[in-house]
Amino acid sequence: MSETSPISLTRFLIEEQRAHQHLNADLRLLIEVVARACKSISIAVGKGDLGGVLGDAGTGNVQGEAQKKLDVLSNEILLEANAWGGHLAGCASEEMDDPHPIPDAYPKGNFLLLFDPLDGSSNIDVNISVGTIFSVLKCPDGVTNPSAEHFLQPGTMQVAAGYTVYGPSTLLVLTLGHGTHVFTLDRELGSFTLTRRNVQIPPDTREFAINMSNQRHWEAPMQGYVEELLAGKTGPRGKDFNMRWVASMVADVHRILTRGGIFIYPWDKKDAGKPGKLRLMYEANPMAFIVEQAGGAATTGRDRIMEVGPTALHQRVPVFLGSRNEVAYVTEFHRNHDRKA
Ligand SMILES: O=P(O)(O)OC[C@H]1O[C@](O)(COP(=O)(O)O)[C@@H](O)[C@@H]1O
Ligand SMILES: [Mg+2]
Ligand SMILES: [Mg+2]
C-alpha cells in the first residue's frame, strides 16, 4: 500500500492503538460505533423534508427545551447503535433526564458515553449546518450499573471526545488525547477518511463568535471586552475584528479549528439563575478537550473548563474557547475585574 493511500477511520484507530498503550479494542469499537451512528444521522439530516424529519417533535427535554424530530431521532440512533457492542457501561444524553442503562440482555463494558445528539437544533429547519458532540469517560472500577454520580467526572478525565458537522460535507473531528484530527465522510464509500492530522488552531485571531443580541444582559467584564473588540484599529487592541455566529456550536467551533477565532457563550442576566447556556458534560467538556488538543484554550471566563468539578449531569457553564492568546486575554480581563471588585 502506498504511503499516500487514504487513511480510513478504522486504520487510523488501529494505528493509534499500536502507538498508545491506553487505547484498547473496546475504545476503538466505541468510536467506530459512534461514527456509524453519525453516518445514519447524516443521512437523515441530508434527506430533510423528503425524509419527514424536519419540525417539532411536540415533546420537551429535561432542559425545558422543545425537542425537534431530529433531536429525538438522533438520540434514538445513538442509543440503539451503542446498546449491544459490549463496550459501554452506560450512556447519558442532553435529551434524557437520567443516564440510560445498557439492557441486561447485552454484555457491559468499561466506558461511559455522553452526547449532545443534535447540536444547533434551531438550524435544522433552515438547512444550516448542525452536528453531534460526544465525550467518553471511564466507568469507575466495580460499577456495573452507573448512575448520574458516576458520570460526574471533570473534563480532564475524558479519554476521547469528538463532534460531527453535517454541513456541505460531513466531518468527524476526533481526539483520543494525542492531537485533534479531522475525517471527511466519503459518501460513495460510506466511510470516514482522515483529511487533516494534528490540526493546530492559530494562537492569535481577529474573529469572534458571540450572540450579540444578549449584550444588554452581560456582566461588566464582558461588556468591556467586547467594547474593545468593536473599537477596532483605533481602540486598545489596535486591530479590526470580524464577527461570525452560526448558532450551531459545532459549526462555530469548526470554523475556529480551521482558521482561528474565539467562541463565547457567557453567563448573562437574562436568566440569572442559570450559570450559562451550554452544557458542561455534553458540549463544553468535549469541545474543550478537542480545542486544547489542537493547541487552543477553553475557560469559563475565569477557570479552565476541563477542571470544573461537575455537580449535576445537565449542569451549564459559560464557555470561552478558541485561539489560546485571545482566550487568555479575555480570561485575564475577567480575573482583573474580579480582583478590582
Ligand atoms: O440561539 P443562541 O442563543 O444563539 O444559542 C446558540 C447555541 O445554542 C446551541 O444551539 C445549543 O445546542 P442545542 O441545539 O444542542 O440545544 C449551540 O449549538 C449554539 O452555540
Ligand atoms: Mg448543543
Ligand atoms: Mg442538542
UniProtKB/TrEMBL annotation:
CDD domains named among the record's database cross-references: FBPase
EC number per UniProt: 3.1.3.11
Cofactor note: Binds 2 magnesium ions per subunit.
UniProt-annotated binding residues for Mg(2+) 2: 116, 119, 283
Positions contributing to Mg(2+) 1 binding: 94, 116, 118
Keywords carried by this UniProt record: Carbohydrate metabolism, Cytoplasm, Hydrolase, Magnesium, Metal-binding
Enzyme class: hydrolase
Domain Fructose-1-6-bisphosphatase class I N-terminal: 8-196
PANTHER family per the UniProt record, alphabetical: FRUCTOSE-1,6-BISPHOSPHATASE-RELATED (PTHR11556), SEDOHEPTULOSE-1,7-BISPHOSPHATASE, CHLOROPLASTIC (PTHR11556:SF35)
Protein name, entry field: Fructose-1,6-bisphosphatase class 1
Lineage of source species: Bacteria, Pseudomonadati, Pseudomonadota, Gammaproteobacteria, Lysobacterales
Gene from which the chain derives: fbp
